[in-house]
Predict the structure.
Amino acid sequence: MGYHPFRSSQQFATAETDPRLKTLLPLLRRRCQALCAQDRAPRRYARESQRLEREIKSISQTLGADLFAHIKIVFYNAYHEPVLSTEATDRVSTVKYDRQLDTLSVIQDIKALKAQLDATKDGDEQRALEEDITGKILWLLWCEMCAEADELLPKVVEYIRREGKVKGLWEIWSAAPSLDPGDDQAHLQRIMYDAGANTSKYQLWLDARAREQAKWSVTDRGTLTVDDKASMLPQTLTREQKL
């Protein structure tokens, strides 16, 4: 990907005034300060490291594990930005998300699916609709979070660099979550990426139902019913008597 929409010093200078970062920056600064204190305050460093380890472990058990991988790539590129003009050090994230996602359109789709879900009583149809709704919600949030990481993390890195605590960010970057998803996580991941690929479980269900109905329609046309056979019996007997 290697996408960096916010690289100018003017935009970096607004990090402290960005309302999305107003609460985050002081908290992150204190955490980075603790993670920079391995020699001066080893106990404080150890406590913060253990806390970070627990948080990363918790993240690794959710869809956030892949998001963390994307954040690490964005951080790496922002961290090494001062040398990017002379060295090609950019890393490319393999995380998939739609940078041009039409949020309002997705919300409208979700509302339409929810209305269809409320109207149906068929269990299979309900499950297909629920999966589509879940996938679209996950995909919407996923794309928003990845876009926020691309936009805001370079600002955060520059702010922490100016504060002289960038080593603490590197400690966070170095923490590696497990990227081996469990069954539930893999299932949600599949649902989310299906939504991103416009693969609808509900549409697949409709197509399967239409094929099944067509098959039974052909079978019905080619099979005589009991009534059909009964109505033909007198005609058969009449022809046999004439013979």
Q: What stands out?
A: Residues 11 and 146 are 19 Å apart (CA to CA). The two ends are 85 Å apart (CA to CA).
